[in-house]
Amino acid sequence: MSDFDLYKLSSEHDMLRESVRAVCADKIAPLAAEVDENGEFPQASYDALRQADFHAVHIPEEYGGAGADALATVIVIEEVARVCASTSLIPAVNKLGTMPLLLSASEDVRKRYLPAVASGEAMFSYALSEAEAGSDAAAMRTRAVRDGDTYVLNGAKRWITNAGISEYYTVLAVTDPDAGANGISAFVVEKSDEGFTLGAPEKKLGIKGSPTRELYFDNCRIPAERLIGAEGSGFKTALRTLDHTRVTIAAQAVGIAQGALEVAKDYAKGRKQFGRPIAEFQGMQFMLADMAMKLEAARQLTYAAAAKSERGDTDLTFFGAAAKAFASDAAMEITTDAVQVLGGYGYVKDYPVERMMRDAKITQIYEGTNQIQRLVVARQLLQ
Ligand code: CAA
Q1: Cα separations (Å) of 241 from 82, 95, 245, 255?
Q2: How far apart are CA 302 and CA 244, in angstroms?
Q3: What separation in Å is there between the alpha carbon of 237 and the centre of ligand 1?
Q4: Of the residues 170, 245, 292, 342, which has the maximum number of CB atoms within 10 A of its CB?
Q5: Which helix (H) or strand (E) holds 33?
Q6: What's the CA gap between 352 and 347, in Å, rounded?
Q7: pLDDT band at residue 371 using 50, 70 and 90 as cut-offs
Q8: Active-site residue, 78 included
Q9: What pLDDT, on the 0 to 100 scale, is given for residue 1?
Q10: Which atom of ligand 1 has the smallest separation from the CA of 366?
Q11: How far is the CA of 147 from the centre of ligand 1 (A)?
Q12: CA distance 186 to 60
């Protein structure tokens, strides 16, 4: 291998992209506007991903999964987000929900839950945030109290992606209130557990096809073997999870931005004003060039972060946060500029760029706001 091969995707990764792109063009893109309009979970898109085995590609083969590496997972999410950001949350949140199991759970817990996600029978969400514990996640109040061979959960989680659709949830709860971040533990909660209920779906600016709801625990009693890792290790598992999955949000941002750039480029080549296509005006060319440069920089940083996630490099915390912040800021700028390129047509639903601009916004907020990403990056830099 020459040094330059390091900067080229493998033919398997290129082929995977082509396969995902074909499924997206055929079955997911045609539904994207309707999914946004109706605000309903895109079951048909899920079925299409499941049929092609792209719904949870990261699950290792030993649990019945496709065993895709972190870069392959990023490519799947990027390609789905290019046409429908809501649908891209299916592979992304399946990874987010199950990553705590892959990082810290016992073999029994993994064997019990991962095969159903791999086959597509069940989805898996991640419940960290609370109404008063967003950026300051360790300030959570949901309690889990040991009682014999069970734990009893009480409290509420907020902003839970794919809640209600998911069968399983990684839930973070305080087991030792005096131990701060080291008094938090992680558990698997099942949708059918008694004492577990859901709030109404949030009415959102974007990603409308991905339900976001609250979770309520009212004396929700679960078997003690649903603990993920050791008691008190939950917060670290939660942050280690985010180190890996912030890369998938970067991928989502790259995908959304790619979709918007393509629409803007095609429009600029076709739209005539002052007797010629607007793409011939230098003002427009500079805008498109800036969009393409930012996008490519975001993509390269995201892929580098994915490689670090796959290898488990020690600087993943830096790279995961940097890729997420950089790519989501880029996506917000690129989608906003795409709307500008289309002018009035960009501002209405005749074209998908207004949806892409609304969808891009969440990538600057979830899995830690971009202010928190900068805090994480700075801590890594200065430590
Ligand atoms: N990996 C492992 N351990 C880590 C870690 C990491 N990346 N970062 C910190 N830790 C450890 C620390 O070493 C420390 O352990 P010790 O006490 O043993 O030394 C412990 O965890 C606590 O760390 P901090 O003191 O740094 O914790 P903090 O309270 O200052 O918070 C934070 C750190 C970075 C601000 C963190 O709270 C954070 O990331 N906040 C953002 C929350 C977030 O990202 N939420 C996303 C919700 S999920 C979502 O959005 C999903 C969706 O919808 C799709």
Answers
A1: 24, 9, 6, 21
A2: 11
A3: 9
A4: 170
A5: helix 32-38
A6: 9
A7: very high
A8: no
A9: 44
A10: 50
A11: 28
A12: 21
| Residues composing the chain | 383
CA 136 to ligand 1 center in whole angstroms: 8
CA end-to-end distance (rounded Å), the chain: 35
Query: CA nearest 296: which of 262, 327, 268, 318?
Result: 327
pLDDT in tens, 22-77: 999 999 999 999 999 999 999 999 999 999 999 999 999 999 999 999 999 999 99
Three-state SS for 315-343 is: CHHHHHHHHHHHHHHHHHHHHHHHHHHHH
Atom of ligand 1 nearest to the CA of 368: 44
Domains defined for the chain, CATH in brackets: 11-119 (1.10.540.10), 124-232 (2.40.110.10), 235-382 (1.20.140.10)
| Residue 237 CA, closest ligand 1 atom number | 2
Q: Cα(218) to centroid of ligand 1, in Å?
A: 26
Question: What does residue 166 show for φ and ψ, rounded to 5 degrees?
Answer: -70, 140
Q: What's the pTM?
A: 0.98
Contact indicator for 368, 376 with CB cutoff of 8 Å: yes
Cα separation, 204 vs 309, whole angstroms: 30
Provide the 10 A C-beta neighbour count for residue 379: 12
Which residue shows structure tokens 């999410």? Answer: 77
Q: State if residue 198 touches ligand 1 by the CB under 6 angstroms criterion.
A: no
Nearest-CA residue for ligand 1 atom 43 is: 368
Query: What is the C-alpha separation between 266 and 333, in angstroms, rounded?
Result: 18
Amino acid at position 40, single letter: E
Antiparallel, parallel or unpaired: β 168-174 and 124-127? parallel
Give yes or no for residue 320 CB within 6 A of ligand 1: no
Any atom of ligand 1 within 6 Å of the Cβ of 130: no
**Ligand 1 nearest-atom number relative to CA 212:** 53
User: In whole angstroms, what is the distance from residue 101 CA to residue 142 CA?
Assistant: 20
Pair 364, 332: CB distance under 8 Å: yes
Q: What is the pLDDT of residues 338-353, one digit of tens each?
A: 999 999 999 999 999 9
